[in-house]
Amino acid sequence: MSHSIRGKTAIVGMGVAGVGEAPGYSAMELLGLSVHSALSDAGLKLRDIDAVFAATSSHAFASMSVTEYLGLKPKYFDSTNVGGSSFEMHLLQASLALDAELCDVALICYGSNQRTAGGRLVSMSEPQWHETSYAPRHPITAYALATSRHMHQYGTTREMLADVAVSARHWANLNPDAFARGPLTRDDVLSMRMVSDPLTAGDCCLVTDGAAACILVRSDRARDFPKKPVYFLGAAGANWHRSIQAMPDLTVTAASESGPRAFEMAGLARSEVDLVMLYDAFTINTILFLEDLGFCPKGEGGHFVQDGRIAPGGELAVNTNGGGLSCVHPGMYGMFLIAEGVAQIRGEAGERQLKTADVALLHGNGGTLSSQVTAFLGSEVVL
Question: Which residue range or ranges hold the Thiolase C-terminal domain (predicted)?
Answer without folding.
Answer: 237-378
